Here is the input.
Amino acid sequence: MNAPLQPNIGFPAYFRHRTVAGKVVLTNFEGNHLILTQDEFREFVEGTVPRDSELWTRLEQRNFLRETYRVHEAAAALRERKHFLDQGPLLHMLVVTLRCNETCIYCHASRANMDQVQTDMSKETAQKAVDIILASTNSFVTIEFQGGEPLVNFEVVKHVVEYALKKNADVGKRLEFTMVSNMALMTEEKLDFLLEHKVQMCTSIDGPEKLHNSQRKLGTFDAFQKARYWIHRINERYGEMGLDKTLYHVEALLTLTKTSLTQHKEIIDTYVALGCKTIFLRPVDPFGFAERTRLKIEYPRSDYLEFYRQAVDYILELNAQGVEILERYASIFLTKILQGTDPNFLDLRSPSGTGIGALAYNYDGSIYTCDEGRMLAAMGDDALKLGHVDGSSYRELMGHETVRAVALASNLDGQPDCEQCAYNPYCGTVPAHNLKTQGSIYGHMPDNNICMVHKGIQDYLFEKLGEANPDTDKAFERWTTIRPREHFVHEEG
Amino acid sequence: MNAPQRKFDALSVSVTLPADSHPPHVVQGAAVSFIDRCYVLMDRPSESEIRVTLCAKEAVEDEGTLAKVADAFEARLSSSDLYHRVAADNQVLTDAVVAQAFGFGEAPASAPGLDDLEAFDFSEDAFDDPLGIAQTWEEKHGRPTPEGPTAKKEEESK
Here is the structure.
């Protein structure tokens, strides 16, 4: 057994640490990292690092030494990491209807049958939502059409796009539209409108045809075939428009169920075959389905993490063969770890994007801090409801006590376990998830599912970084390269 | 007593520490990280001691399993102690970093200008606090201010 550490307080600058695969991951106040051997860590903590050593140089360069700590450089780095703090809501989710033509095994509370026309958003409500959206202090806003299935209420989608563009001519924001659709109700006419107005389209693919169709049920039993057809068709149209296909193509969202966990290769191969360059291996959310369903589709997060490791290992194998695909969770973390900036993924930042980074507008005009807040309300808990398009001003929404509470609760520096976690600079917590699963927007991290997932993924990534394999490092570097899709941005002036 | 003392029973292990060995928030920080696998009780059996009792949530086969839990707790405590000592030692620097990053930095280009502020609605109180978020727990719930162990003991002896 090693002798206890004899810390030389005064030698190290502020740091956090975590042991991963026998090595020690160090992070500092502004988010730089180093991976040390146990012996190097001991030298660092005990202050016995020789000045002319390679270790001293590494520590000094990454600002881990008290004696040479560069405050100005650290402040600039911290400001870059938290660039989103003074911006205001970027993402505005518009639930234009709850009606959906597909019945998914994991989705109940956030959908309605096709005859429930009362769950369609009216043009008047949509217009009021757009007025609030364009009042955001953020100079860049994204309006995301959600459902239900947004193509069911396409008239309102069209109205929102046209009204927002018209109003934005005076407001002058950078404006973007996205739509999450199962594509089954797509037509050439609708597609013409969406392409003409630069609406970015995204669909849902759960994996190979058999798996997808067993989880996402369409009356005609061909949910996968329809999605595949329109993915190819839209990509073809992008090509006809002269857009770079490596950048402009339809991406898909994945819902991982218990059945999916045995099929990592099949799922990834399906995404590659569909021309997707990104796959987001997120575990299933606890929102919107009944307890009976939960038992059927949920799984322990340790099983998920095993799946995740195998899946990303496989993606790296494909990358080595020249296949271009990346895992989105890893890409977000790696951008923070390797590039020192924050890609502003709202569930993975501190404080979270709940409220201060995003707002969700339900079909009836109710406004929530996030889409999960809307789903919680559908399950009987309206704790995350902020107001209504009738009567709520942007200022009232942003100053709402719930927005303040979730911002405080999701600040990792105020979370007992997160405060000293080595992954603090790269991580985030989700107040709605904490509320649903642990009864409090703060949650308690030691037995929090999202915390376990985030730690597990970062353990995997630092393990890989610690191996110093040039192929992996090259792939990871590429995964952090953000190429903005400027074609989809409407810009005035 | 200087080293932590362990006491086992069928389901739990108690680790008793000298009260002056670590600040209570450091012990609490280490103890709270065990709530995923243990029921955790932190108390003060005497003025000079802090005790953390870790009771396994799942059945344990032998004392060896509980000993591993105690080892893990002591390792965590040591790590937590190191973190807090380094953080305290560097607080002036980290405060300076935060101040430079957010307090005295240049306003971003997207920040409102004077013309925007002229039209801004200042009629509402930006600092109203209807949920009492800024209040202490004691103020909010009308609870008495907590007393230190010494004061409590004096009270009891009256």
Notes: Chain A has two domains: 15-81, 91-377. Residues 15-81 of chain A form one domain. The longest strand of chain A covers residues 140-146.
